[in-house]
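Tokens as discussed.
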């Protein structure tokens, strides 16, 4: 079956998915091209650059296998694919941890008093110290020192330009928890940069 040449550059993710579901195999390649780099950057900063390529391949395999279940009424494709990316990265880190028999210990920040969860967020803006993070190498070094839950929030919010609501959907956490983790991450970054 022949399909008319389609200008994918102007198409939304959802339009491309519909074309793929209707038999246009080129459409899935467009999704890969559109998301390979952002997914690589996200996973590399949560793990490392060597493992990121393997994780991104795993993400696209999962997307390919499950794209029939994608429902644009529930979330945007970007939110859906980054949820898969986060889960694939978490699975990878768990496997790696069990292989290395390392015992890093629990995360006390998760058990912090819920009082801070209810403090309204005034959309904390990075100050001059945080502007130093423009340097990619410095950013990678600093992010590796943060707990993974803080890294995920910062990367999704700043690098992928997602709202806290979208980040919450990806991480499967309430909005106030995401805002609180963002606030704590910013405070930790400021301490590290001073």
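Sequence:
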């Amino acid at each position: 079956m022949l399909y008319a040449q389609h200008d994918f550059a102007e198409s939304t993710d959802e339009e491309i998915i519909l074309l793929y579901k209707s038999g246009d195999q080129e459409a899935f390649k467009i999704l890969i091209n559109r998301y390979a780099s952002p997914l690589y950057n996200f996973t590399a900063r949560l793990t490392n650059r060597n493992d990121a390529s393997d994780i991104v391949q795993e993400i696209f395999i999962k997307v390919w296998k499950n794209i029939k279940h994608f429902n644009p009424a529930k979330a945007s494709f970007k939110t859906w694919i980054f949820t898969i990316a986060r889960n694939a990265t978490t699975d990878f880190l768990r496997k790696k941890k069990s292989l290395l028999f390392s015992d890093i210990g629990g995360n006390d920040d998760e058990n912090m008093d819920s009082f801070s969860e209810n403090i309204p967020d005034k959309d904390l803006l990075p100050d001059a110290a945080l502007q130093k993070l423009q340097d990619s190498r410095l950013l990678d070094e600093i992010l590796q020192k943060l707990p993974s839950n803080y890294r995920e929030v910062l990367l999704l919010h700043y690098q992928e330009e997602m709202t806290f609501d979208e980040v919450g959907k990806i991480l499967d956490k309430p909005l106030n928890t995401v805002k609180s983790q963002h606030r704590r991450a910013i405070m930790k970054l400021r301490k590290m940069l001073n």
